[in-house]
Design a protein that fits this description.
This protein is α/β, with parallel strands linked by helices. The chain has 14 helices and 19 strands. A hairpin with a 2-residue loop joins β1 and β2.
Length: 411
């Protein structure tokens, strides 16, 4: 029997670190260790909703699930069915969106033995069958953890579509050389979307990012310069919707936008985005609304005569995850820029439940370690970790990860 320590959900806001015995793996399963897991606001929603969440079983109190779905680690033992495809010692990432028609259950929400906030896990057969266990060849485990959120922005930008002129056929992806707007774009997912927009094959000519926090806008501007794309960060704090709309039109010489992304679910902003759409523009409702009745007015005249359209993307898929893993391993995306906090498994429950209050970007859990949450911007510059961070302009790095793994105590 293999022992694992894991953060498990027993019900609404009832999260506990348990030491459990994993059963022997079956021939179609894989035993693995998790090294790092980055937190998603979806895990906060999961913890808040408990058994009311559509991806959880209805008996959490008796059958708790492992939490966390943005994880990377190392394979320890491979069942005979998969021995020709995976090997012990191989690093991996998992695309948790299994995309099955018959069940919404996925890793990190629904299973007793697989989740990111654990030291060891059992990867079930369906993950491999669906191509969702993906070898990772990057330098660091934190990079692997961020493959899943990157897969979400890849899915979003690649799911945009525009008409091929004078046809009703569509070309997928953002409009090359067009105007792109990200509303509420300085959170971790917005920053990853900026990174992908600047480095994907299809690039906008003009990219506008809005938010109401000048400090976050300044940080994003520093992190994401570009010689190829005209990028601008706009503070809309205190502006009425009418003033915001006027300002955003001024930023594109009185025109509108070809690709628009809503990173927050606010009705007036959604309606404003609809009014800012150019002919054949595509609006993506990226943020998952908490309210099942969330709605906004859309101009159907424009839908008919100006061919405007609306899409929504919810997570990535195995193909997106594999693309993310490749781009990150090739250093085409620098995902370390979105990490603002690191912590040990002991702090995972409190941090999961406190994400809105903590703010910042991604919170990265090192699952085998025991240490309180560290805010990178507040690390003592004279400490060993502080000196490492200073070498990398305050950004997380392979060197910083190695320091954590070698110096913080095991849980």
């Amino acid at each position: 029997m293999v022992q694992s320590k894991a953060l498990r959900l027993y019900g609404k806001e009832d999260m506990r670190i348990d030491t459990i015995e994993l059963p022997e793996i079956k021939d179609d399963e894989i035993l693995a260790e998790v090294v790092s897991d980055s937190m998603c606001m979806s895990s906060w929603k999961l913890a808040k909703e408990g058994e009311e969440h559509k991806k959880t079983p209805n008996d959490l109190a008796d059958n708790p699930v492992m939490v966390g779905h943005e994880f990377a680690g190392k394979i320890l033992k491979v069942g005979s069915k998969w021995a020709d495809k995976y090997q012990a010692g191989q690093n991996f990432v998992v695309q948790p969106n299994l995309a099955r028609d018959d069940t919404p259950f996925v890793p990190g929400y629904s299973y007793p033995y697989i989740g990111g906030d654990a030291t060891k896990i059992i990867i079930p057969n369906e993950v491999m069958e669906l191509g969702c266990l993906i070898p990772f060849n990057g330098d660091s485990y934190y990079e692997g953890s961020l493959c899943e959120p990157v897969s979400c922005v890849i899915a979003a930008l690649d799911a945009q579509f525009h008409l091929i002129p004078h046809t009703y056929e569509h070309k997928m992806g953002i409009k090359e050389g067009g105007n792109m707007l990200i509303i509420g774009g300085t959170g971790p997912m917005g920053l990853l979307a900026i990174d992908y927009a600047l480095h994907a094959d299809l690039k906008p000519k003009k990219l506008i990012i809005t938010d109401i926090d000048q400090e976050k806008l300044d940080r994003a501007k520093k992190l994401y310069p570009s010689d190829e794309v005209d990028i601008e960060f706009v503070n809309t704090k205190g502006l009425s919707i009418e003033e915001q709309e006027k300002l955003l039109r001024q930023k594109v010489n009185g025109s509108g936008y070809d690709d628009l992304f809503l990173m927050i679910s606010v009705e007036p902003l959604a309606e404003m985005a609809g009014r800012l759409m150019n002919e054949d523009a595509c609006l993506n409702q990226f943020a998952g609304p908490m309210n099942k009745d969330f709605s906004a007015k859309l101009n159907l005249y424009d839908v008919h005569y100006n061919f405007t359209h609306l899409v929504g993307t919810s997570g990535g898929n195995a193909k997106n995850e594999a693309k993310a893993a490749r781009l990150i391993a090739e250093h085409k995306l620098n995902v370390a820029k979105v990490i603002t906090h690191v912590l040990g498994l002991n702090a995972a429950a409190e941090t999961t439940l406190s994400q809105p209050e903590i703010g910042g970007g991604k919170k990265l859990v090192y699952t085998h370690k025991k240490f309180d949450r560290i805010e990178l911007a507040k690390v003592d510059p004279e400490s060993e970790l502080g000196k490492i961070l200073a070498k990398h302009d305050g950004i997380w790095s392979h060197e910083a990860e190695e320091w954590i793994l070698n110096n913080e105590p095991d849980i």
